[in-house]
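User: I'm writing a tutorial on reading structure tokens. Could you give me a worked example: one chain, its sequence, then its tokens, then a sentence or two explaining what the tokens reveal?
Assistant: Sure. Here is the example chain.
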Amino acid sequence: MREQSSGGPGAGMQDDVALTRRRWVRALMGGVVTGRPQGWHRCPLHPKHTCRHRRTCRHRLHRKPSRHAGLPSPPPGTPTELPPGLPPTPPVIVNPTPPSGVPTPLPVGEALPADVLRVLSRFSYGYGAGLHEQVRAAGGWPGWFEQQLDPASIADPRADGLLSWWPSLSMGYDGIWKLHQDGTQPGWVSVAHYARWCLLRRVYSTRQLHEVISEFWEDHLHIPLSDDLVFPFRGDYGMVVRKHALGRFTDLLQAAITHPAMSLSLDNAFSTKWAPNENLGRELLELHTVGAGNYTEDDVKTSARILTGFQVDTWRTWAPSYNPQRHWTGPVSVLGFTSANADPDGRAVIAAYLDHLAHHPLTARRLARKLAVRFVGDDPPAALVERLAQTYLDHDTDIRPVLRALAQAPELRSAAPKVRTPLGDLVATYRALEVDVHPPTSDESGANSLLWFAYSLGQPPFEWPRPDGPPADDASWSSTSRVLASMDFHLTTGGGWWPDVDMTYRAYASWLPAEPTAFADVVDRLSVRLFATRAAPRVVQACVEALGIAPTTLIGHQHALATWRMPHLLAVLLDSPDHLLH
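And here are its predicted structure tokens:
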């Protein structure tokens, strides 16, 4: 990480950066952006500690660049193209080092039709060269989609290899507890490793649909990573959800609701026939199946009684078990489900109850609408929701026919673009920029540090504080602060400045064509390479205004874009609707 002392040679660069960024914000969004305190940030792990006027958090384990860390300067004598009003020679920053990598010239690339891009962008984490090759090999998006519905048939060596990067992911609850007990690895680190693993799987997996739908179900059956007591089981819970993500919802519901992580998160592990706890019984109805307003308080009480019997030996062995002596017995009736419930071993009744809820028409309609909001738009057509719900019921709650119907729906083709969530932006940016993350060798490694970017963007994985899971609507992720945080992230990542340990970024010159090319054409080629779409005129104009380069200026490998100004150009493109919308 390159340091810069206060008042040193690069002290004036912050004002230049702020001016440049304000120019392209106006060009892209047509609004007025006011300044914010510069040169500091709040460490997400130390919310009460403000690291003002420093480039890093003082905590040695959680160093992170500030919003306006110094930009690298060009070598002496490098020709430059600066926006009007900026000094002709940028201040010198200590140790300016562009990303390593072989500067292979950028190929022309191929723009994809809008309908193909719509399917790929909604059912993957963003365009990339690897995704393009998969679609081409499958003969088009329909063939690719059918392959994605059967993830076991797709080789995925890079993503599969990520599991070995964090050994605790392969441990059982007892191994994770032992690490916590002896101080080797606190529980919060174990769940953080699970979040890191998920993020990188989303970046590199060839089974993109499986990653997308796994996130959807973990959000639907949400358990916050930071919930009390869940750390020995939270990683395994995520693995269980992934196992059933492209199967029948009834199987997924059974596995999730009876998992010790869910029992601990919603207090069912402490619910007994003498004192039933209603948390899980209520959320099962309200959040996981039929939805609010479709049940009574008596239904909640009965639901809680049915679910009694599960327990966990917390803070000793952490062994989960089912204790028939704690199960409430007696006749039960909930939303059309009835049972004598006479056996103290109530697991068969629980299984029948969950199966009934999974097949309930209200559950079908609620899941259909949630899927339509996630993949189509905030206000999906009622006809689409009804078709999806009927498909779900006709196929015994199998999610694959529902996803196929979604991908083929004309409503998807005509849908307006959706806003990428901050996490979606993070993953799509790494995919577009072809960032290469290597196995971690320290806490500073990119594979570990990437998680703190998610915190700074405002959406750490699986950390939504309520059991309803994070929102999927556009308005929730369209605030000014969110957009500015994404812009900071795009500039830092486009520059390859942080994380910088065990990371490889493309060399700046590698983004340019082999021969000198007009700047407007450079922008267009980059847009095709990053997003598989031609650059819209307003995007080209934003790049022209932000960098102060005329559209006809010839850009060769001796130009400043090849040495130090490329991060600005990449950032403008990533800040554009072609990336922030999908």
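What the tokens reveal: The first strand starts at residue 41 and ends at 42. Confidence is low (pLDDT under 50) at residues 1-98, 100-108.
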